[in-house]
Amino acid sequence: MDMVLDRVGRPGIVLAVIGLELFNGLMGTVSGLLFLAAPSGELMGLDAELLEGLPVGDFFLVGLFLLIAFGICPFIVSWGLITRSELDLARLLKKLSIRHWAWTGALVISGLEVAWMCVEVILIGIFSFTYVWLIVQMLIVVVLCFGGVRRYYA
To answer: Is the pTM of this model over 0.85?
Structure first.
């Protein structure tokens, strides 16, 4: 079965994983910046009472983590997915998989996001957005597993 290719020879499904990862980075960046701008959580519609009993007094560290881990890192991975360039900093990811480091990085980030959501649910409860974000992460994993995507990043 022939695959639909874009102008640079990428299977169309590869564009889906690139788009999802860019969306991941955008949401992580926006969330992180909103927490950094208002560590009380008010810009995110959260009450600081959610933090009672936790070792942090506000959402500043959460914002910093979201910005770096789920904002900047997905953008770096997106760059790798788009260009298939090598990155010296990604040597560990190369050792984890036979695929390109960006493919592995996208999988690792989605796994970390799911783990983050599990901890979040345990510590502060579940929000409707948690379900949506879980679906996005699972969609990324499913698309990464498509044969055309795996072959493109082999």
So the answer is: yes
* CA 132 from centre of chain: 13
- The closest alpha carbon to 142, from 134, 79, 119, 23, belongs to 134
Decide if 131 contacts 62 (C-beta within 8 A): no
- Please give the residue range of the domain that contains residue 32: 12-152
What is the C-alpha separation between 124 and 93, in angstroms, rounded? 31
Task: Please identify which residue in the block is written with the tokens 């989605």.
Answer: 110
Residue 129 within any structural domain of the chain: yes
Q: What confidence tens digit (pLDDT) does each residue in 64-114 have?
A: 999 999 999 999 999 999 999 888 877 777 778 889 999 999 999 999 999
For the record, the structure tokens of 59 come out as 């959402």
Tokens of 46: 């959260």
**Rounded to an integer, what is the distance from CA 41 to the centroid of its chain?**
21
| 5, part of any domain | no
The band of 1, judged by pLDDT with boundaries at 50, 70 and 90, is: very low
Summarize pLDDT for 38-65 with one digit per residue, the tens: 999 999 988 888 888 788 889 999 999 9
Domain count along the chain: 1
CB 137 within 8 A of CB 23: no
